Amino acid sequence: MRIKFQYNQVRMKYFYLMLGISILPLLLLGYISFNIAKNTLIENQLKTTENNLKTSSEVADLLFRNIINMERLISWSPDVRRELIDSGKYAGVGQSIMDNETTKRIQNLISSYLIDTQYIDSVCLFDVNYRTVCYGNSNSIGKYNNGGMYRTISNSFWYKKSAEAQGRPVFFDNNILNNDDSKNTFSSVKLLKDSQNIYNPEKVGLLVVSIKKTMFTRVFQESSKKDWAIINLSEKKESAVIENNTLLNLEFNRADNQESSLKLIQEKGNLTSSYQNQTTGWTFVKFIKEKELLKQSNQIGIATALISSVLGLIVLFLSFSLSGTVSRPLINLGDIFQRVTVENKELNEKLVQAQLKEREAELRTLQAQIKPHFLYNTLDSIYWMAIMQNNHDIAKIAVALSESFKLSLNKGEDLIPVSKELEHIRHYMTIQNLRYQDRFQYIENVDPHLMEKKILKLMLQPLVENAIYHGLEPKVGEGIIELTGKEKDGWVIFIVRDNGVGIKDLKTTKQGYGLRNVRERLLLCYGTDSTLSISSKVNEGTSIAIKFRTNAREVKDVKGSNI
């Protein structure tokens, strides 16, 4: 009886000992590991998002700079200055609106400076008597489209703010000309001064440009899981310039002066990152649900709990069934505990490393897009210098070259729609015709249904380049390049023909770098049944054809093959 009592006593002590040295430490280790993984993911997410926001802000600065340069051209124009000064002289005559002739002259001047109208919705000029002439979308101009006199402008908030800027452009988050319909546009206001009077410039008018908010779709081009917004925090109350999430709009309506809408969003389980734009002072914001970010980390927590439960059952079984041999269960339990600990640590490390690699890949992709910005800025400067010096040929080359680089980079994607590849060729032909004084005629005959089909980028442009340098450049006089594209019996066929001098040595030409590169990429990505063929007759011309199946595998299936 005594032995049995001692046996039971040892058995219970062993049970409590196993419970204390295995299950509780394991639960504590799982809790600590889970929190480390969680904090690491959040920290790296916030850092990556902040870098992405900086990149987006720099892209937006490029677009804002184009608008500011256009405003400078208008404000520096002697014709615009003369019309505004002459219009201001009729203050005492009692004319409340400008005459039709003056209005048409000013509208023609405005239209001549609208070089890139992709994001410009309307442009309005006011003289010193607040009589207005507008050009553009009448829906965004509002009541100012009739050319009347609006003296109440001098008391408006936006006018006072532009006057304080002393001629510097000021951006407003709404359409100041039409507050009732400003969801899709915002305004830039510039006070115009007499540039001829350097020491004491007088005000000669006011320039108001309405800009489409769709320009920000070029700034934010990321996963839909990451909601974004642009917020104006410069006023007494927050206001959204643009946002793509109903949650953010709802919190703006609920927020007051004492509590920020971003704080309300964070309280609902969202992570937020922000970056202030240098040109406008607006704040670029991105937020993501913390629950979605930590989905895999939560899975690790669940796995840890399950392992602990299973291990607890094992400990209970060993404690009661093997209490006679204490040493063996202790050794076995120690081994199990060590293996579980190592596996749990490895799982957490793999999770953190996987998340870090994913965030780093996103950052590298965005950084790769930003690397050519120095080149874009240089080409942009060349373009505006050429415009100011009235050298339109150089301006056209700068625009064509800039667009060619953008299409070539294609945001890091290897596939590109046929329409974009054709656009790349047209930019290339613009540069070559400016260089060779319009010697080349380019004819394009591609089936419309092929335009949205994606092909490898730089598949067709090297063939056109080969036709110019080996066929048409040595030829005396003008030349013709014809590009045809069609789909037949499951095959896509593109043919580039020229009427140049032809090729004497086809073997040497086929080994050239450009054609060899196209052939290798074609075989690698579309299979061995794809072809590149050349036919040529001396002094008659050359024809190059590429042919591949429409259901061929995409480039993403062969990533890492150095395409």
Protein structure class: alpha+beta
Query: What is the straight-line distance between the termini?
Result: 83 Å
Looking at the structure, what is the overall shape?
A: flat
The count of β-strands is 16
Return residue spans where pLDDT drops below 50 for at least 5 consecutive residues.
Answer: 553-563
Question: What's the number of helices?
Answer: 16
Strand order of the largest sheet: 2-1-5-4-3
- Average pLDDT works out at 76
Largest sheet: 5 strands, antiparallel
What fraction, in percent, of the residue positions are helical? Answer: 40-55%
Instruction: Kindly estimate the percentage of residues that lie in beta strands according to DSSP.
Output: 15-25%
Please give the radius of gyration in angstroms: 34 Å
What this model shows, in words?
By secondary structure, the chain is α+β, with helices and mostly antiparallel strands. The chain has helices at 2-76, 78-88, 100-113, 138-141, 157-164, 246-254, 261-267, 290-293, 295-321, 327-370, 373-388, 392-409, 418-435, 461-472, 506-510, 513-526; strands at residues 120-127, 132-136, 170-172, 185-193, 203-212, 227-232, 239-243, 270-276, 283-289, 415-417, 440-446, 454-456, 479-488, 491-498, 531-537, 541-549. The chain has a five-stranded antiparallel sheet with strand order 2-1-5-4-3, sandwiched between helices. Strands 11-13-14-16-15 form a five-stranded mixed sheet, covered by helices on one side. It is flat. The N and C termini lie far apart (83 Å). Mean pLDDT is 76; it is low at 553-563.
